């Protein structure tokens, strides 16, 4: 789908092409939450998250990620894509709690559609994708990294990764669960998801939620080495294999996208869930104080 069509699908509030483009352009002009550096000779792009303070996946950030991904997919010189945080310490704090708290149903629906779109695009990405996890990686951050073909994590015990939704009093949607099961297996997912576990690097490696743990100062070179290994495989064979492996999981969401949006809106709008999110946000503030 063309960039403008994608933007229009993601920005349903906009009534005309002009409005879509004006909104996207305005978002771009305001800030770049995603920085893309391309090494054309190597055929590798690095997408850096830059959404201070904690790279939360706000609606704007998710939209920028989708637009940049589409641009890279259309650039036939780019065969591999590395995700990382521009500022070590936090890879991504996950979905933006402020897009899920205190807003109206139309906003929740718009946000969820964008998050679905990002996951669908990433999970089916024809490029080799590697997550360079150089900081905390909870919930939606973990989801993004699990959509990648390979995960390299910096060996810093302060960094943790996992789907911790239950600890916030919310439920990971079925396609988050499917992605986790595909990554670490069913039994490990039963334990991990119900307890909302966040794993430090050594445990993350043991459970298989990351593929490699390396000293922090080597995390980027390790990701490049992994990328070189994967790029040695002919694209068409690897891409078809990836598509075959991931199609059932993708189809599962595609079949019920609208129902999933409705379920999210109704779940997140509940008073009890909003109260829980409010308390969680307060807890984050108090921890800081
Ligand atoms: C029946 C089935 C129905 C299905 C329906 C589905 C519903 C479920 C829907 C969604 C799934 C949710 C997925 C998610 O991703 S939820 C987000 C989960 N994220 C977290 O739990 C991480 C929370 N953050 C942290 O733990 C830490 O911030 C940190 C480790 C990432 C970084 O720590 P530190 O550097 O010490 O920073 P601070 O904690 O001080 O935070 C700074 C600042 O940022 C705010 N903030 C942190 N995380 C988020 C966030 N995810 N969204 C928005 N804002 C965030 C934090 O509150 C501070 O704000 P300030 O006090 O105003 O400065």
Which key features would you list for this structure?
single chain; alpha/beta; 2-enoyl-CoA Hydratase, Chain A, domain 1; six-stranded mixed beta sheet; three-stranded parallel beta sheet; globular; binds ligand LUC3G6IP
- End-to-end gap: 46 Å
Shape: globular
Oligomerization state of this entry?
Answer: single chain
Helix coverage percent of residues? 40-55%
CATH fold-type name of the largest domain:
2-enoyl-CoA Hydratase, Chain A, domain 1
Q: Output the number of helix runs.
A: 12
Small molecules held by this entry:
ligand LUC3G6IP
Give start-end ranges of low-pLDDT stretches.
1-8, 10-30
The CATH homologous superfamily name of the largest domain equals 2-enoyl-CoA Hydratase, Chain A, domain 1
Q: How are helices and strands ordered from N to C? A: HHEEHEEHEEHEEHHHEHHHH
Query: In the CATH hierarchy, what is the class of the largest domain?
Result: Alpha Beta
Structural class: alpha/beta
What is the averaged pLDDT score? 92
Task: Give the biggest sheet.
Answer: 6 strands, mixed
What percent strand?
5-15%
Number of strands: 9
- CATH second-level architecture of the largest domain: Alpha-Beta Complex
Major sheet strand order: 1-2-3-5-7-9
Could you explain how this protein is built, in words?
This protein is globular. Helix 4 packs across helix 11. The chain starts with a helix and ends with a helix. By secondary structure, it is an alpha/beta fold. It folds into two domains: 30 residues, no CATH class; 256 residues, 2-enoyl-CoA Hydratase, Chain A, domain 1 (Alpha-Beta Complex). The chain has a six-stranded mixed sheet, with helices on both faces. A three-stranded parallel sheet has the order 4-6-8, with helices on one face. The N terminus is likely disordered. It contains twelve helices and nine strands. The longest helix has 20 residues. Helix content is 54%, strand content 14%. It holds the Pfam family ECH_1. Belongs to the enoyl-CoA hydratase/isomerase family. This is Enoyl-CoA delta isomerase 1, mitochondrial.
């Amino acid at each position: 789908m063309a960039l403008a069509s994608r933007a229009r699908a993601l920005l349903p509030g906009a009534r005309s092409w002009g409005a879509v483009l004006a909104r996207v352009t305005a978002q771009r002009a305001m800030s770049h939450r995603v920085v893309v550096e391309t090494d054309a000779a190597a055929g590798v792009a690095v997408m850096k998250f830059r959404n201070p303070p904690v790279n939360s996946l706000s609606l704007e950030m998710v939209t920028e990620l989708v637009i940049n991904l589409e641009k890279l997919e259309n650039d036939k010189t780019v065969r591999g894509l590395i995700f990382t945080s521009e500022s070590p310490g936090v890879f991504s704090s996950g979905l933006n709690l402020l897009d899920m708290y205190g807003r109206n149903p139309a906003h929740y629906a718009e946000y969820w559609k964008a998050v679905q779109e990002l996951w669908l695009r990433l999970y089916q990405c024809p490029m080799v994708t590697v997550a360079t996890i150089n900081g905390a990686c909870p919930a939606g951050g973990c989801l993004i990294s699990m959509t990648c073909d390979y995960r390299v994590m910096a060996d810093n015990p302060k960094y943790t990764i996992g789907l911790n939704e239950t600890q916030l009093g919310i439920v990971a949607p079925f396609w988050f669960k499917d992605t986790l099961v595909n990554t670490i297996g069913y039994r490990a997912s039963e334990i991990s998801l119900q307890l909302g576990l966040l794993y430090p690097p050594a445990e993350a490696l043991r459970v298989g939620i990351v593929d490699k743990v390396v000293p922090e100062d080597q995390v980027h070179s390790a990701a490049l080495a992994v990328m070189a290994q994967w790029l040695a495989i002919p694209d068409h064979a690897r891409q078809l294999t990836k598509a075959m492996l991931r199609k059932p999981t993708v189809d599962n969401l595609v079949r019920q996208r609208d129902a999933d949006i409705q379920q999210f809106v109704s779940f997140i709008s509940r008073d009890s869930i909003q109260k829980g999110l409010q308390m969680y946000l307060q807890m984050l503030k108090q921890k800081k104080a």
